[in-house]
Amino acid sequence: MGNNMTEIMRNAQFWRERAEETRTKADGYRLAESDKQRLLKVAAEYEQLADRAEQWKTIAEAGH
């Protein structure tokens, strides 16, 4: 499991897709404004994970 989890953590595309799916839910569902804002915050956090994944990949590639 550890190796697969490492691959996911370093996969920026995976996190960007989660962010887009979450934004789509926030925009597409009839939600209270507070719930919509929560989903948009989660999407922003997924984007941050994507940015970190790109950094980790760059660092890993530089080390090899």
List the helices and strands and how they pair.
Blueprint: H1 2-9, H2 12-28, H3 33-63
Helix pairs in contact: 2-3
Task: Please provide a brief summary of the model.
The protein has 64 residues and is an all-alpha fold. The protein has 3 helices and no strands.
Structural commentary:
The chain is an all-alpha fold. The protein has one domain (2-63). Helices cover 88% and strands 0% of the residues. It is built from three helices and no strands. It has helices at 2-9, 12-28, 33-63. The protein is elongated, with a radius of gyration of 14 Å.
Overall pLDDT: 90
What is the helical fraction, as a range of percent? over 70%
Q: Gap between N and C termini, in Å?
A: 23 Å
Tell me how many strands there are: 0
Kindly report the oligomeric state of this protein.
single chain
Q: Count helical runs.
A: 3
Radius of gyration: 14 Å
The best one-word shape is: elongated
Measured by DSSP, the beta-strand proportion falls in under 5%
The secondary-structure class comes to: mainly alpha
Give the tally of structural domains. 1
Search tags:
64 residues, elongated, mainly alpha, 3 helices
